[in-house]
Design brief:
The protein is mostly helical. It has helices spanning about 10-35, 40-55, 70-80, 80-100, 105-130, 135-165, 170-205, and strands spanning about 60, 65. The chain has a single domain, classed as Orthogonal Bundle (Arp2/3 complex 21 kDa subunit ARPC3), CATH 1.10.1760. Helices cover about 70% and strands about 0% of the residues. A two-stranded antiparallel sheet has the order 1-2. Helix 1 packs across helix 4. The N and C termini lie far apart (about 60 Å).
């Protein structure tokens, strides 16, 4: 998922860098309203966890591998604004320290994972949360669904960027099929990790989970 230098041309990279900058700036304002004494430490822990887990790959199919993106997980734990900032810091650190994603492609990667991955994932979480019963188990199920959706969403972002400014010669159809097909499989792994991680936090400190706030089980009135 991490785009290297030179894979997308400079004009396209610059355009998405500008779009990412706008998204990150908006997230800074949103995060200022959502952060408090509880979520601030959790935001740091979430970013550290995602940074570490993104370094671990799991096999997918035909010799390919995937790793946690963490956008949906971060959004559910600390909110989408803070999640965008956390993922942005993680991606910049990976590019600077490990050359995992190029510096000229940082805007592309931030757009795909910090914006599309986070916000599509959180949107999927809210949709599932609205449909499912109001309880802790549903939060875990909604989190898993969000993780599943967030990965193909980020992959589609890359496909768009490839269509606009690819320097390679692979056909768009080939890239679209390969990216979406592979990343749906990776999304299954993302769903499992996201669901288990949210479930673990919910088991001990549900009050820390941003996506659980305001969720109350409906009261039942019984006669007799």
């Amino acid at each position: 998922m991490h785009i290297p230098d030179g894979f997308i041309d400079i004009p396209t990279s610059a355009t998405f860098a500008a779009l990412s900058a706008v998204g990150v700036a908006a997230s800074l304002k949103g995060a200022a309203r959502s952060l408090d004494e509880k979520t601030a430490p959790l935001a740091g822990l979430t970013a550290t966890f995602i940074f570490a887990v993104q370094m671990l790959n799991f096999p997918v199919a035909a010799g390919t591998s995937g790793h946690l993106l963490g956008g949906a997980l971060a959004a559910i734990l600390v909110g989408p604004y803070v999640a965008t900032l956390s993922l942005t810091v993680v991606l910049l650190m990976q590019a600077l320290l490990f050359a995992d994603g190029g510096l000229s492609a940082a805007g592309l990667n931030i757009f795909n994972m910090s914006l599309l991955g986070v916000w599509f994932g959180y949107g999927a979480f809210l949709l599932a949360k609205k449909i499912l019963p109001k309880n802790k188990v549903s939060i875990t199920a909604a989190a898993a669904f969000a993780g599943l959706i967030s990965v193909p969403a980020a992959a589609l972002g890359f496909t768009l960027q490839y269509a606009l400014g690819a320097t390679a010669t692979f056909s768009l159809t080939t890239v679209l099929t390969a990216m979406v097909g592979t990343h749906i499989l990776i999304g299954i792994g993302e769903a499992i990790i996201t669901g288990l991680s949210v479930s673990a936090v919910m088991a001990s400190r549900p009050d820390l989970v941003y996506g659980y706030r305001g969720t109350k089980k409906s009261l039942e009135i019984r006669e007799g």
